[in-house]
C-alpha cells in the first residue's frame, strides 16, 4: 500500500464562520470562526507511471473547491433553528452562506471527504482513494474522518 499526504495549512486563508447551535452550554453556540487547515491522506495499491501515488498537480480543482466552500464563508447547518435568519445575512450581502448537513470539525471532515474523495476517484479512474481527511481549527483542535 502506498500513501501520500497533502496539507492546506492555516495560512491558506480558509477562514470560515459557523456556530454549533446544539452546544447550548458552550460559547460554541455563538457565531465564531477559524482559519481551517486540511490534511488529506491518499492511498493506492499501485503507483502511476511516474512512480507517484497521486499527482499533486491534479489538486487544483480541490484547492479551488476548498476556497469556494470555506474562504470567508458562513457555514449553516441545515437543521439550525436560526437558518432563515442566517440565510438572510447572505441575501443582504452581509455573508457568503453555505448550507451544509452539519457543522463542526468532525462534520466538516466528513463533508470534505465525500467531495474530495469523489474528485480523487474520478481523476485517477479509481486507482487512488482518499483514505482520510483531518480538519484543524487551530494547533490544539482537529478531527479526522475516514470511512469505515
Automatic annotation (TrEMBL):
Root EC class: lyase
Enzyme Commission designation: 4.1.2.50
Gene Ontology MF, one: 6-carboxytetrahydropterin synthase activity
InterPro entries the record matches: 6-PTP_synth/QueD (IPR007115), 6-PTP_synth/QueD_sf (IPR038418)
Pathway: Purine metabolism; 7-cyano-7-deazaguanine biosynthesis
Catalytic activity: 7,8-dihydroneopterin 3'-triphosphate + H2O = 6-carboxy-5,6,7,8-tetrahydropterin + triphosphate + acetaldehyde + 2 H(+)
Xref: Pfam families: PTPS
UniProt function note: Catalyzes the conversion of 7,8-dihydroneopterin triphosphate (H2NTP) to 6-carboxy-5,6,7,8-tetrahydropterin (CPH4) and acetaldehyde.
Record family assignment: Belongs to the PTPS family. QueD subfamily.
Name under which the protein is recorded: 6-carboxy-5,6,7,8-tetrahydropterin synthase
Annotated organism of origin: Lichenibacterium ramalinae
